[in-house]
Design brief:
Belongs to the MLP family. Residues 2-151 form the Bet v I/Major latex protein domain. Pfam families: Bet_v_1 (PF00407). InterPro entries: Bet_v_I/MLP (IPR000916), MLP-like (IPR052006), START-like_dom_sf (IPR023393). The chain has helices spanning 17-26, 31-34, 132-155; strands at 4-13, 38-45, 55-62, 65-77, 82-88, 95-106, 112-122. It is α+β, with helices and mostly antiparallel strands. The protein has one domain (4-155): START domain (Alpha-D-Glucose-1,6-Bisphosphate, Chain A, domain 4, 2-Layer Sandwich), CATH 3.30.530.20. Strand 4 (65-77) and strand 5 (82-88) form a beta hairpin. It starts with a strand and ends with a helix. The relative contact order is 0.24.
């Protein structure tokens, strides 16, 4: 009986790595305006979107269904462009651990990639593996990349 798991996806992006990471590191409140699968987010507790003591409440769509959860930032590694989020409450309560890890990578060939990792522990074997999250993260990454590229073209 395996309750713990890890899902990983890596997606190439056209946006420079620093710009993509900056959105999550210092402009997280904007993500809801860039992704059609994120319906709403707000600060549930605390005053700052990027403080580890703050809790955000998210409403989003996975596999055609509306879901909710709370999120807090567990760790930020600016040097390696990596952020670890802890998700809990709402629909995440079927997992005792649910961590979402974002890494934005500068590739040797001058391109960039986004690596998403989900570390999870299910409360029991009847809980499904969170595979729908991979599609959600892939599509959201594409939405964000496209939006950031449009903004870059306008700035040129």
């Amino acid at each position: 009986m395996v309750l713990a798991g890890k899902l990983i996806t890596e997606l190439g992006i056209k946006t420079p790595a620093d710009k993509f990471f900056k959105l999550f590191a210092s402009e997280l409140h904007e993500v809801q305006n860039l992704c059609e699968r994120i319906h709403h987010t707000k600060i549930h507790h605390g005053e700052d979107w990027h403080h580890s003591d703050s809790i955000k409440h998210w409403t989003y769509v996975i596999d055609g269904e509306v879901h909710t959860c709370n999120e807090s930032i567990e760790e930020v590694d600016d040097d390696n462009k990596k952020i670890t989020y802890k998700l809990f409450g709402g629909d995440i309560d079927k997992y005792t651990v649910f961590k979402l890890i974002l890494e934005v990578i500068n590739k040797a060939d001058g391109t960039a990639a986004v690596k998403w990792t989900i570390d999870y522990v299910k409360i029991n074997e009847d809980v499904d593996t969170p595979n729908g999250w991979m599609d959600y993260l892939s599509k959201s990454t594409r939405d964000i990349d496209g939006h950031l590229l449009k903004g870059e073209r306008v700035a040129l």
